[in-house]
Amino acid sequence: MAGVRRRAFVLWLGTAIALVALVIASLAIGAVPIAPGGVLQALGGTGDALAVTIVRDLRLPRVALAMLVGCALGGSGAALQGTLRNALAEPYLLGVSGGAAVGAVLAMTIGITGAASVPLLAFAGAIAAVLLVLALARAAGGARDPRMLLMAGVIIGAFANAVILILLADVAPERVRGAMWWMAGSLTDASWLRVGWLAVYVLVGLGLLVTRGRLLDVLALGDESAAALGADVAGTTRQVFLISALLAAASVAAAGLIGFVGLVVPNIVRAFGVVRHRALIVSSAAGGAVLLLFADLLARTVRAPVELPIGAITALIGVPVFLARLGRIR
Amino acid sequence: MTAGVPLRFDHVTLGYRRDAAPVVIDASIVAPPGGITAIVGPNGSGKSSLVRGVLGLMPERTGHILAGDTPLTPTATLANSRLVAVMPQRESLAFPMRVADYVALGRSPFLGLWDAATPTDHALVQDAMQRADVVAFADRRTDELSGGEWQRVRLARALAQDTPVLLLDEPTTFLDIAHEMATFETLSREAQRGRTVVLVSHTLTLVARFADQIVLMHAGRVAASGTPREVMQGAILEAVYGWPLVVSHDPAVGAPTLVPLRRPR
To answer: What is the ipTM for the molecules in this complex?
Structure first.
């Protein structure tokens, strides 16, 4: 037990240190570099007036957005992996994010831009994707067969991409680049209003997932044992899918399509011996925040002043992890 | 300690599909509290389907399954899991976990979404681990256990549920002689303490020594039931298993012993 506790402690300490370091670095690094000491001063509202504006009005909302999106993706990935009993599940690979993106793009093309209303349309899209994925997997012979679900998810994701391209055909050329950019994930559009709404969705969603933690532990034992322990397998699976869809939708509406965070982070957390889902979901949310801050820092600095799409960065990090995990499953 | 209630199958027919033949046909079984009821029979005779029926996992079902006076309906899984602790035949964890954490999941039927485990829950978990003799590896991971250790850990989880009825599907597979005997002694103690113990088993000779009642299944039906002496008869078993055998009575053992014969060339 000491070993397990110590490893979990190392994970939590490392996450906390990385979070603080990355937040300060994200606030300091940019077109106008600010020294770490200046960052702390600016956060307090004192010191150079320009630095205060840059840190508090420009960089801080972006940092908050990155952390919230990371929390949503990491937490929902951990919960989806538990319900599907599969370490490869996550909202992006299951097509949930793709469905949300269809909803969000649809909202944009018909002129809905509200920070509260776009997530709702994205949510509708995500739900539609979940239902389609489940129906497709069932038709192929197994709604609980993780392989069928992943296949169906990838197919629905491709389908969603096609729908988005068709929706964008009508859009004015100068807006297409913006939309395409957003499809690859971007945190450029951070405002406190958007951050505030996302915070509401993410806190509610993660809270609901954490309350299902013990049920997810039981579900991970398999259908027979879950039934033996009184779990409503179908009902819990449905609830977790819906809550995860909500989280994915909120993050897609705020920052576009960012994949693989929900895949990478829970697998790393589990490697530290954190397996029970309450702790796993919370740790994965925190780890998701770390990964997204890190990816955003890379996106902003690697080819500065050019900003790379953050979804591409997370995919570059995520694909090797996916392949390593795939090898172990066989 | 929870007192036992009878587990009753009342004219139960179970099947996987409406258009396919049922796998359990009109089975009526009463397992009384304070004793061990063993369900035996050849492969495919419907034993495990009875267990899945209790779990509400058989799509086609007629008749009644009751714990005491409470019907175990397929939709009331939570209420059922507070009356009957089931140890399914197979179980593979998607993500390995610490043994003590796994056994503690046996308390989950009694905990709401917002509840934390109480001292009573912890005490029941500790007690269950002692009775199943798994305390020594409470801190190991489930994927680091031998087949026999895993079986005992699973038994500990069922014991931690602390229900009136224990229903175990082949609890002694993968166990060596000592652990097999120890498991039966444990179950025997649970029965003496008033619980209803029902187990599915292939080891007839051992079952004959520990069970108070044996139910012999054949092709989905109850072919015979009664005390070990009543059911363990050469003619009955030979017909059901389709293999020549003798049943001997060794006074040192005190229970009928089954010996399958070599087929003459």
So the answer is: 0.89
Using the predicted structure, report yes or no on whether residue B102 has a pLDDT greater than 50: yes
Min Cα distance B178 → chain A (Å) is 26
Amino acid identity for residue A241 in this structure: F
**pLDDT for the residue numbered A33:** 87
**CB < 8 Å to A86, chain B:** 94
| Residue at token pair 């229900």 | B163
Q: Which residue has the tokens 């015979």?
A: B224
Judged by average pLDDT, the poorest of A78-82, A236-240, B34-38, B220-224 is: A236-240
d(CA A104, CA A96) in angstroms, rounded, equals 12
Which band of pLDDT confidence, cut at 50, 70 and 90, is reported for residue A3?
A: low
CB B155 within 8 A of CB B197: no
Q: In chain A, whose CA is at the least distance from the CA of B93?
A: A221
Residue B184 main-chain phi, psi, to 5 deg:
-65, -35
Residue pointed to by tokens 């909803």: A103
Interface test with A, best of B48, B105, B121, B157 (most A CBs within 10 A): B105
* pTM of model > 0.95: no
Instruction: For B45-63, write each residue's pLDDT tens digit.
Output: 999 999 999 999 998 999 9
Q: What is the mean pLDDT of residues B205-221?
A: 93
B100 by Cβ neighbours in 10 Å (0-12 / 13-18 / 19+) ranks as: buried
Of B55, B105, B109, which is closest to A217 when you measure between CB atoms?
B105
Of all residues in chain B, what percent are helix, strand and coil, respectively (each to 5)?
A: 35, 25, 40
Closest CA to B211 of B195, B191, B194: B191
Give the gap in angstroms from C-alpha B106 to the nearest C-alpha of chain A. 7
Given CB atoms, is B93 within the 8 Å cutoff of chain A? yes
- Distance (Å, whole) CA B223 – CA B246: 18
User: Could you give the CA distance from residue B48 to residue A260 in angstroms, rounded to a whole number?
Assistant: 41
Q: Are strands B165-169 and B84-87 parallel, antiparallel or unpaired?
A: parallel
CA distance A72 to chain B (A): 21
Compute how many other C-beta atoms are within 10 angstroms of the C-beta atom of residue A326: 11
Inter-chain contacts counted by CB atoms under 8 A, chains A and B: 92
